[in-house]
């Protein structure tokens, strides 16, 4: 049977859906769909409309060559979005900057609302008023929009790329921070959007924000009169914390609402009556205190009374707030739970939690219909990629709406399996089995270790698709060991600061049960992982020889080196003591490694800097127990991407990644040689 996983060209060409926006009267749903560009070297996103009733087929709304994203409805029904489509504000090199555009509810072509030198990165709208806040950037020394434009032109003309820093951090994931700084802008002059022609005016809401809005997202009150946001506050020794801030939209007065050295805060949605704000509280970690996420209800006026109150305080999950019910009686949230991320409803008065969706899927981007009868969300699982669904709130019945793309045919089946850790803890996994696996025809297997380390295998992933390996006849085990979410705080606590202990023994217990199956060939098993999963792959390599091959992507190798060079060294400093870093560092066991390893790293990875991959590669070769051939070549391999980051995002490079991984596994598990992608020039 031929599936889209039979060909890497077909796989990277599958449409990729994300995000969801519902208009005020509940009659329109808009999502984003990314497809390959004509050169097959990137993805282009377009906006699609999905019928909330499920009667009409999805229809495409936008078609520019630059693509569109960030859909958000105004209260009046017009649709705002961002796009770099050509406009009169192109820079001197003809490269369009992302700007704010509007598709009128009455129909017609999109019109330009706002273009600025620093671009428009995101859009936030109020539910009950035509109030718009956009995010964008300004150069650190700019006094206003005109000054910013002049400074940008001068910097570009001079060819200067240097950045002078006075604080920390200086990098984030794959971005060099500065000299741009994020800002929020109120969009003035929205009357008569059809005739604006890009003449709306941006008003800087926090002109002295400097770099404090990085990683923040604004939340507007229903009437648009108040904005809430997290703001980063610098601390000693390069550390930082986030506080909760209220900004009056008319006066720009800024008030700090919550500031606590033991917690970080971020805003969730405001209640329909505007009297309460949901707050996400993240506990600050120490070497002995693991992270924990909880929700608070913060009164916003004197009549609401008192300070913040814990919401569902006894619920042992990490909820993400999505939306209020229209009557303000309850909050809709999602939370990782036993290999899924269901929708829950939390009663605002009692904190009682009710699970709404019962399937083993992951939900996000949840909106509520105006009558409170329906929820709309994006759903995925390992059985299907993200899709738009409708959920009946009372019963939890879920219906797949008529989406822009269908579900791909899968080359295997999915099972839920369980093991028991050394301390008796239940360890659950997803197991992908290729078609034909049986006791009469046992198949080779892969242990795939998730990253994070705080996380869970519970949603479809394009970067780590087990189905591409199932297509080649491999079973793939996706375990949730210690440090995984969805199993209670204890599961995280078990592995905090001691990565080489419970996470490792949980993985080995899951592997023991995997190879004991009659449909698995226990003599042909490999391990692989990325980021923290790559760390665990390295740890596994130095502590057991049970695997025939190991693939390690964007992995931590020498923890003493990693800590000061990662983009958030202050966080790492809190996670492990120097003694724990030494005890849990994979590099100290390099002399024990006797398993062929494929090392993969991107040069633009600032979360796990390239030095980790380079040091791993050198020490692996210099201490290798595996003999080289007559040409001095060892069984180890290093796949290097000079222009990729922590993730391999370009479709042509994703094909290389999967092609090299499959060839490496075939050599060591199947005893077969595969032709490497010809683009490697080998």
What does this entry show, briefly?
This protein is of the alpha+beta class and 682 residues long. It is built from eleven helices and 38 strands. The strands form nine sheets. Strands 31-32-34-33-35-36-37-38 form an eight-stranded mixed beta sheet, with helices on both faces. The protein has a four-stranded antiparallel beta sheet with strand order 1-2-3-4, with no helix packed on it.
Characterise this structure.
By secondary structure, the protein is α+β, with helices and mostly antiparallel strands. The chain has a domain at 412-673: Alpha/Beta hydrolase fold, catalytic domain (Rossmann fold, 3-Layer(aba) Sandwich), CATH 3.40.50. It has eleven helices and 38 strands. It is globular and about 75 Å long. It starts with 7 loop residues before the first helix and ends in a 12-residue tail after the last helix.
Question: Strands, helices and their partners?
Answer:
Elements: H1 8-12, E1 16-22, E2 29-36, E3 43-50, E4 59-60, E5 68-73, E6 79-83, E7 99-103, E8 111-114, E9 122-125, E10 132-139, H2 145-158, E11 171-172, E12 175-176, E13 180-188, E14 201-204, E15 219-220, E16 226-234, E17 240-248, E18 254-258, E19 263-270, E20 276-283, E21 293-299, E22 309-311, E23 320-324, E24 330-334, E25 343-347, E26 353-355, E27 362-368, E28 374-381, E29 384-392, E30 398-400, E31 412-420, E32 426-434, E33 443-449, H3 466-470, E34 475-479, H4 489-493, H5 502-515, E35 520-530, H6 532-543, E36 549-553, H7 559-565, H8 569-575, H9 578-583, E37 597-602, H10 610-622, E38 637-641, H11 651-670
Parallel strand pairs: 33-34, 33-35, 35-36, 36-37, 37-38
Antiparallel strand pairs: 1-2, 2-3, 3-4, 5-6, 6-7, 7-8, 9-10, 10-13, 11-12, 13-14, 15-16, 16-17, 17-18, 19-20, 20-21, 21-22, 23-24, 24-25, 25-26, 27-28, 28-29, 29-30, 31-32, 32-34
